[in-house]
Amino acid sequence: MKQLKYLLPILFITSVILSQTTIINRDPNISAMLSEISHANLEANVRKLVGFGTRHSFSWRNEKEKGIGAACEWVKNQFEKYAAESEGRMKVSLDSFYVEPDGRRITRRILMTNPVAILRGTNKTDDRVFIVGGHIDSRAGGANDSTSTAPGANDDASGVAAVLELARVMSKRNFPATIIFVAFSGEEQGLFSSTYLAKKAKEKNWNLVAMLSNDMIGNSFSNETLLKDNMQVRVFSEGIPLLETDEMKSIRQSTNAENDSKSRQLARYIKEIGERYVEQIEVKLIYRNDRFLRGGDHTPFNRQGFTAVRFCEMNENYDHQHQNIRVEKGIQYGDLPEFVDYEYARKIACINLAVLANLALAPSQPQNVGVLTKEVTNYTTLKWEAPQNGIPKGYFVLTRETYQPFWQKKIFTDRTEITLPYSKDNYLFAVQSVDEAGHESLPVWPIPVR
Known about the structure:
This protein is α/β, with parallel strands linked by helices. The chain folds into two domains: 28-361, Aminopeptidase; 367-449, Immunoglobulin-like (Sandwich). Helices cover 31% and strands 23% of the residues. It has eleven helices and 17 strands. The protein has helices at 2-19, 28-36, 39-50, 67-83, 153-170, 187-190, 192-203, 246-255, 262-277, 299-303, 342-361; strands at 90-99, 110-119, 128-135, 178-184, 207-214, 232-236, 282-286, 308-313, 326-328, 331-333, 367-372, 380-385, 394-401, 409-413, 417-420, 427-434, 447-449. The protein has an eight-stranded mixed beta sheet with strand order 1-2-4-3-5-8-6-7, with helices on both faces. Strands 15-12-11-17 form a four-stranded mixed beta sheet, with no helix packed on it. Helix 5 (153-170) links the parallel strand 3 and strand 4. Helix 9 packs across helix 11. The longest helix is centred in the C-terminal third of the chain and has 20 residues, at 342-361. Mean pLDDT is 94; it is low at 6-14.
């Protein structure tokens, strides 16, 4: 009896531990890509960008060693080095356009330039496009101060450095879909270059599946609150779409989908895939389009109806953001490279790569996903059609209770219809494609069908 007395607690503890075990399956090819992302390269890229003195949109365009023009040319040259390893699949350009005065931060007609690298997909019938970007311009304390030193190490050389690393690693690999790497200009003046590209994507009818913006991903120590955190990253996503048609509004209201926009599905996907592939970091989903009353380069894409989110460090340091370089009362102000946590930036870059690679390798999303409403029943029947691109092994049907922020269950089926013993009154659903290797598409929210 004594032996049994001591054995029972041990068995209980063991059963609890086993019940909490999580099985993680990773694509070894994607893991190999992640291992190539280097915090040393990120630091070198940040310091090189800082070395241009200022990258203000109104700064020098024709100097070789300083100003926004030299910085854009350097990023283009880096892209071209990576393109040389792509077997002709990566094309590089400087995409330029003019912005007219607006009476605020645009005081004169100005040329703005996006260094762009397009890694073409290997499947000619797959028209999917994915964009990853950061903004190359920087600023000091004054929004229109184009001559003072403005290092912009974290804001946003860190994001551009991550984009460069992704381009370097991914250019050597084949993906069925197209991936675009871009360094946006004019973010500090009003999101001009991202607005330009978003409008171009809309006008040219790109099948843009997802846009990832990386803006300030290198600070792990906050001023004022003195928080130190390099194990969490924020992902911002819109709830009610900034571009919502009457039809979309009607579906959202009738299905209570205010927390299930396409961008929010992308955010949940980033959390699942990011934490699956990258150790020692948690993706925190911030349920708002951006920081309070502020915006970023993903916002113009949302305004055009595209799925887009923003990566941003967990805690900001305002001593090192939009500040002139100076020392006051023993405090160093300015966005200097020594205040960037490059290992933290590496982990966030790895999350970006894991998400892009999984999406670009996965089949496209299932089509015409619907929830049957012909009868009132305690069961829920979902039906859909096969994706347009890729060969799915099957599909995951995702479920969660209405008060839960994340998907709780993934039910696999190799058919295009499923009936589940879960009431649509109490549960929310989505469907995603999955291939033989486990690459998953973005989930699709079902609309009511009879």
